Amino acid sequence: LCMRETKPSFEEDRSSSGIWQGVKDELHEYWTLLRTRKVLQLNLLVYSCFAAAFTGLTIEMSFYMSYYDISQSSAAMHFFWKFPLSIMFLSTAEGICKRLGYRKGYVAVALMWVSLDVVFMPFFLVSPVVFMLYQYATCFASGMLPLFGMIDQRWLDQRLTSKYLSMKSLTEFAVGMLANPVYGQIFDARAVGYGRRMAPYGL
Q1: Which secondary structure element, helix H or strand E, spans residue 119, and what is its range?
Q2: Burial class (CB in 10 A: 0-12, 13-18, 19+), 143
Q3: How much is the pTM?
Q4: Interatomic CA distance for residues 166 and 180, integer angstroms
Q5: Nearest to 184 by CA among 55, 70, 64
Q6: Chain centre to alpha carbon of residue 17
Q7: At what angle do helices 60-68 and 128-137 cross, to 10 degrees?
Q8: What sign results for the dihedral spanned by CA atoms 184, 124, 139, 202?
């Protein structure tokens, strides 16, 4: 199908234009792409929510040390094994997709990740064991991010994919600038009470 909004025309002769005109044309192309692609707008909106959620991961070690009275060196050792395990299970998501098909596999891996949040997160303050079980259980879904990247390569044609990916990077940077101070303000190492301590995860 050939839909009006799916392939805007950017064909222009820039051979004789100067540097500033080239920059202006490039920015205009980005704006036109953002304005005319509904799928791109939706993807950037969803990605901004993911980026805000992933920004919250920066408080996890502080959360662990503050509320369980664990030293920094011990916390570093407890978190250390996440990285080799994440690499070890990097192909798990791809294996699930090959077995179920990419659409069902993607949904299955996403539901697994959400299920881990639902099952473990409300009980973080019960015991440090629960908190660390969650940390290591998420290693099984470590291949989710490469799966996202593979899907991103197929939303647009090859020439526009690089622009879309750069928009994602700018979105991540902007969300990080806004979300990091918010999480820093909400997190309180001396907080008392379940609601106040769990506020960053509620966000």
Answers
A1: helix 102-120
A2: buried
A3: 0.72
A4: 21
A5: 55
A6: 38
A7: 160
A8: negative
As given in the structure block, the two tokens for residue 180 are 């990091």
How do residues 90-140 score in pLDDT, each as one tens digit?
888 888 888 888 788 888 888 888 888 889 999 999 999 999 999 899 888
The pLDDT, as a whole number, for residue 3 is: 45
Average pLDDT score over residue span 40-52: 82
SS3 84: helix
3-state secondary structure 47-67: HHHHHHHHHHHHHHHHHHHHH
Query: Each residue of 7-31: pLDDT tens digit?
Result: 455 455 555 556 787 677 777 777 7
CA 1 vs CA 6, 7, 38: distances in Å: 10, 11, 16
Q: Whole-angstrom Cα distance, residue 182 to residue 24?
A: 34
Split at pLDDT 50, 70, 90, the class of 34 is confident
| pLDDT for the residue 29 | 76
- Smallest CA-to-CA distance from 180 within 46, 50, 61, 58 is with 58
Angle 38-55/19-36 helices, nearest 10 degrees? 90
Query: Look-up: residue for tokens 């009980």?
Result: 123
Cα–Cα distances (Å) from 184 to 24, 100, 166, 187, in that order, read 37, 40, 27, 5
Contacts with 25 (C-beta within 8 Å, 6 or more apart), sequence order: 12, 14, 17
